[in-house]
Amino acid sequence: MRRIEKPKEGEYAPYTIMYIGLLPNDGLILKHLRDNYLITRDFIFSLPEEKLTYRYADGKWTIKEILLHIVDDERIYAYRALRFARNDKTELPGFEQDEHAAYSGANKRSIRSILREFSTVRSSTISLFSGLDDNSFTRVGMANGNVMSVRAAAYHIAGHELRHMNIIKERYL
Hints:
54% helix
């Protein structure tokens, strides 16, 4: 299996360590992306329907909104990775995650629909990273005012999912 080493300090925004630090140092990020989705899917399907639209506090997202946030974030970071892998030096903007969640329509969708979209996006992400040559992973670009390498984007995506699954387990159940 292909190994893509963890990014080094300076290849990502300082806050990103909270995501990257959740992953092992084995270089198997593509395997983790695949496995994480399956674990997340099975966990979400194990929850009662009423939990999926529960908010633990006013203004907090529901589990359905969190899942679509993970999907939105993954799409954005995969796009950034593509641009940087192709040596595009255009600085990319950030995004307003709360606005994305508010307009996602997540709570009106079935959990099967959300997880089907998640699966499709994850397959596309794995395909993107699988198709890049080794030199691509250390290329960097600027997004939201921060340096980011292609491999940092891959680790961000996987760790971001893990972080939100931890939050769901700690605060929603």
